[in-house]
Amino acid sequence: MSMTQADIERKKSWRQAIAVYGHPIMLAMLILGFASGLPLMMVFSKLSYWLRDVGIDRSTIGFFYWITLSYTLKPIWAPMVDRMPIPFLTAAMGKRRSWMMVAILGTMIGLFIIAFSDPSQGLWLTLAGAFILSYSGATLDISIDAWRIESGPREEQANMAAAYVLGYRGAIFFSGFGLALSSWTNWTVSFCVMSLTMGICGLMVLAMREPKHSVRLQTAGGLGHRIAEAIIEPFKQFGTRLGAWIVPVFLLVAFYRLSDFTMGVMASPLYSDIGFDRAIVGGIQSGPGLIATIAGGFLGGLIAYKFGVLRAMFVGAFLTLATNGAYAWLAALNSPDTVGLLAVVISSDNLAAGFVGTAFIAYLSSLTDPINAATQYALLSSLYALINKFIAGFSGVMADALGYVNFFIVTAGYALPAAALVLFIMIKGSPAAKGLVRYDGKTDEAAG
After folding, report:
1. pLDDT in tens, 19-34
2. 91-148: per-residue pLDDT in tens?
3. How confident is the model at residue 415 (pLDDT cuts 50, 70, 90)?
């Protein structure tokens, strides 16, 4: 008789859940998370700082943000990363690591081009470097996601996501060092050091194992047929496997993180309007806030491993409701003397974000087929990023119309329909919708 969900959960002790983090693959995920986060932070945050330093107007800097759309558009070339071998490199290193190395080389080139450009004299060279950096970083994300999905069993994906989040946060912290380095020396040195750091990450990739790939059946037909199959098959597969459940699943993917996206845009303006000192806010974000994010990520991984990914997502929705709603309390007090409350609010929100992010990554991973891992994961991650970023763009309009207090109450409330969708899939959903079906046609565990 097959084991039920409850049987499996009882057999997973807390010691087993914690011991998962001792596996060597977690160190690899830590490194890959760092390599994934550094390019985005340099093109999105630190480059903007440099442009403003040399007197570039805010509107132009805002248009530079469009460069990061590469991270949303990556499903367009993800099928190529999934299927196209790189001459010589793929044979020597394997499909996933070869693409990682090419992408890392691209980020190094982009960073070097930016380093030796002079935006005060003209933006074209800086723009070219930012373009190469951004699209190489997005390609690196595609290959890393595929490597992660293929390298670990489904029940460990949440733990691997937690290690990835920790590495990503490390990149955010390290990019802050790059900002300080630019002050001690200059921007050229700062971007060159970041480029060399990516090179070190590349050397570490060489020490990682290439995962075992699922066998792809060869089909007859010419080049055009094979290209069409590479693009259409991964997307068609979702419909075949999920059936009618594709609607609630895609709705959950699209809107589960909406509360975080919309609230986050107005958090910094709130701090400024209340009158908190920037040094205090920065200290909380990089100190207790960072620790809370890391703790939340690992807690999310533990809960998902012990009780299942959907249960962790359900808990995460209510954590989001409570912690994002706390911003309404902060706004209602509207006093720069509430520094203690500010620290609690930021830290709690970061803990919830780390928890939710880890569980959500694990759920997205459970929906993908290892054969099409790069393409399908890129589609899912871009689906929620595109929709949430678009809606978040109206956050300022909402805050002006409703006021801060009501704005944060409304955005916290977005977590409720997300929780309802999770509960609906958890109770009524097919095994595929729950992310329980392996792509050998079997289920990891009985639905329940």
Report:
1. 666 677 888 999 999 9
2. 889 888 999 999 999 999 999 999 999 988 888 999 999 999 999 999 999 999 888 8
3. very high
Domains, in order of start, for the chain: 1-213 (1.20.1250.20), 234-448 (1.20.1250.20)
Structure tokens at 177: 């060092």
